Amino acid sequence: MLATVTYFISFHLLWSFMAVPYLYAISIAYVLSVITHFIANRHITFQDRNKEKLFLEIRKYFVVVIGNYFFNVSVVYVTVDLLELSPYIGILSAIAIVTVFSYLAAHFWIFKESKE
């Protein structure tokens, strides 16, 4: 939830107040939300304190993040340039799907507890 709020507020500030083109604003906001999301997932949601697994988790997380980024940009691009709707509609649509996918990927793959 915190990452979603970070993403939405960052985009709003960049696009509405700083006049950053929407695709750049989405990209910057996405990076900020990814940092927030990883830290929150690792330390709060999954309470992972194992420093030995950190680099493996980051690599796995990066794979998911790249896929989510391209999905986000694609949805917002279609929403704005093809459907001629507000980028906010595209962002909300993408967030709804990416949130579920990201949680499942984190739970079952990125921060999965080893069965040792």
Description:
The structure is a single chain. This protein has helices at 2-17, 22-45, 54-82, 87-110. By secondary structure, it is mainly alpha-helical. It has one domain. Helix 1 runs antiparallel to helix 2 (22-45). The longest helix is centred in the middle third of the chain and has 29 residues, at 54-82. The radius of gyration is 15 Å and the shape is elongated.
Give a nutshell description of this structure.
The chain has helices spanning 2-17, 22-45, 54-82, 87-110. With 116 residues, the chain is mainly α.
Helix content: over 70%
Number of strands: 0
Q: N-to-C terminal Cα separation, in Å?
A: 31 Å
Q: What percentage of amino acids are in beta strands? A: under 5%
Major pleated sheet: none
Please indicate the count of domains.
Answer: 1
Class derived from helix and strand content: mainly alpha
Distinct helical segment count: 4
Shape: elongated
N-to-C SSE string, H for helix and E for strand: HHHH
Overall pLDDT confidence: 85
List unreliable stretches of 5+ residues. none
Determine Rg (CA atoms, Å). Answer: 15 Å
Topology at a glance:
Blueprint: H1 2-17, H2 22-45, H3 54-82, H4 87-110
Helix pairs in contact: 1-2, 2-3, 3-4
Key features of this structure:
mainly alpha, 4 helices, elongated, 116 residues
